[in-house]
Design a protein that fits this description.
Layout: H1 19-52, H2 72-112, H3 118-128, H4 133-147, H5 153-177, H6 181-189, H7 194-205, H8 207-222, H9 226-230, H10 240-250, H11 255-275, H12 277-288
Helix pairs in contact: 1-11, 2-5, 2-8, 2-10, 2-11, 3-5, 5-8, 5-12, 6-7, 8-12, 10-11
Amino acid sequence: MSATPVNRTPRGRTPYRGATSGSGARRAVRTAAAVLVLAVLLFPLYWMIDIALQPGTGLAATDWFPVHADWGNFRRVLDSQGSSLLTSLLVALGAVAVCLALAAPAAYGLARFRLPGTRTIVFGTLITQMVPGMVIANAVYSSYVDLHLVNTYLGLILADASLGLPFSVVLLRSFMAALPHEVIEAAWVDGANRFTAFLRIVLPMSRNALITCGLFTFLFAWSDFLFALTLNTTDDVKPITLSMYEYMGAHVDDWGAVMATAVLAAVPAAVLLVVAQKYVAAGVSGGALK
């Protein structure tokens, strides 16, 4: 005689067959809410592209969908604003290079060396981000006149690099302070000096934080308008932000061309954000662990 297994429900619990369907319904509601929020956030971008693809129409008369899309606005904008896009790209990349070249060793020194006044230096670095940009621009302009840096690429690169420098120093310091010191000591034992260990050990391990700082510095420099307006008195160095400002004043009735300019100006930043998204998340979370 064999015993028949009996399925018993644990005491205090009752079987609930609708749990799976209930969780699925909640998941569907959350997904729908997320899609709705995303649609609201992305609608200005879609409307901008929609107007750019429909030349000769006003804001109120624009169709919801560009059924008969025309790329004429983009061709005209590239002909007139292409040089400004290249200028902004060159200035932003130069600002990233200068910012990382200064922020990385400064952050490593603040994180690894027991220097007097380290907390004061970090606090002062954060305070610099609270100073109004107009005050800095006016103060920098008088110095630039004496140094002959007005209307030059180098002057604008140095000014834009200062926008991301405080943020980069603070983030890199937090990230480098969390690195295992045993790895650096092992490099010293193998014969590497401090500078070699910094280049071959610390910088590769800080890749995510460096990419994060570089991305934010690029965005700061790409979207800068105040330094571009203050430190340039001619058309020799004209970033896309300043060029868009002047272009809108001259084409205030041609919204298709204005929106095409805005779309082209947003493409590099959007591409970088998508490509570097995982590195940014890792870099910010890694810097927050300390």
